[in-house]
Write a structure and sequence with these properties.
The complex is a heterodimer. By secondary structure, chain A is mainly β. Helix content of chain A is 9%, strand content 49%. In chain A, the strands form 2 sheets. In chain A, strands 1, 2, 3, 4, 5, 6, 7 and 8 form an 8-stranded mixed beta sheet that branches. In chain A, strands 9-10 form a two-stranded antiparallel sheet. The longest helix of chain A has 6 residues. Classes of the chains: A mainly beta, B alpha+beta. Chains A and B meet through strand 4, strand 6 and strand 8 of A and helix 1 and strand 10 of B.
Amino acid sequence: MAEATAWIVDLADGLCAAVGERDMIHLVEQPLCESIPYTPAHCRCVLLWEGELLPIMDLTLWLTGQSVEPTCRSIGIVAWQAQPEAAPQYGALLFSGLPRKVQVKDEQSCDLPPQPCGWNTVAISCFRHHGQPVPILDLPLIFSGALT
Amino acid sequence: MMAEQRAVIDTEQSSRYVCLSLGRQALLLPQHDIRTLESVLDVSIEGRPVNGVGWLRFEKGRWPVYCCNEELQPLPVMPLQQRICALLTCASGYFGLLCANVATVPGAQLRIRPLAAAMARPHSPLCGLTLYHGRVGLVSTAAHLAVLLQAEAAIRQQAASGRQADHG
C-alpha cells in the first residue's frame, strides 16, 4: 500500500488543501508583499524571494471570494516541474497559520468536496484526513494563468 | 523558477530606461519613449481630454496630458506632487504623463522579469517587473500606456477639431 507525505494548509473557515511534501520548499510568516496594478484579485501581489519576484496566489479568494485573515497570513514557496527534466518553477501560496505534515495512504482517497465548486479546477485528487476531505492542489495549473 | 519568470527581457537592446515616480510607485519606460520633459505649469487645463487633466502644446500640436495614481489609474486632477510632465511618444503623436521625479537607469542595472502567467490580464499595461532601489518597479511602454489612457483617441479627436477649425 502506497504512502506519501503531504503538507496540509488551512485556507479559511475549515477549508484546507494539501501539497506534496517536496512541493513546499520554504515558509514565510508575516510576509511583505508588493501589490501590482492590473493583476487579478487572487494574484495581485509579488513576494521578493531569493532575488526573484514570485506571484502570490490567494487561492482562498479565488475559491470563496474571501481572503485569508491578514493577521495570520503565511506564505509557502512552492515548486514544481512541468516535465521531469525541466527546471523547477516557483510560486507563492497564501494560507492561514502554519502547514501540518501528514502521512497519506492510498486508502484515504476520496471524492472532491462539492463546495466550493472551484475545487474541480484546482485539485488533482483528494484524500480524507480526520474525517475531512483535503483536496490536493494542481500547482502547475494554478500558476499557469488558467484561473484568470 | 517558472520558465516564463526566468526569461529576462533583453535590456541590452533598449539600453536605457527612465524611471517616473508616481507616488511610491516606480514606473520604468524605455528612454526612447520619452520625447521631452516639461513643467506642469505649461499644461492647460481647459477642455480636459477623457481620462486626462489637460493639454500641452509642443511642436505645433496640442497633446493630451494624464496623471495616474500608484495603481496606474487615471486621476481627474493633478496631484501637487506631480510637477513634471513627461511627454511620451505614441503612434499618433505624443501624450503627457505627470510624475514627481524622473531618473535615467542603465538597462544593464535592471533585470526585467516578464509578468508571471498567473498575474497576466489581457489589457494590462505592464510588460514586466524589476527590482529598482530595493522595491518592485513596473515596466511598461508608452504604447501600452497610450492604450490604457485612451490617448490615441484624444489625439485623433484633437487633430480632427484642429482641422475643422482650419477649414472654418
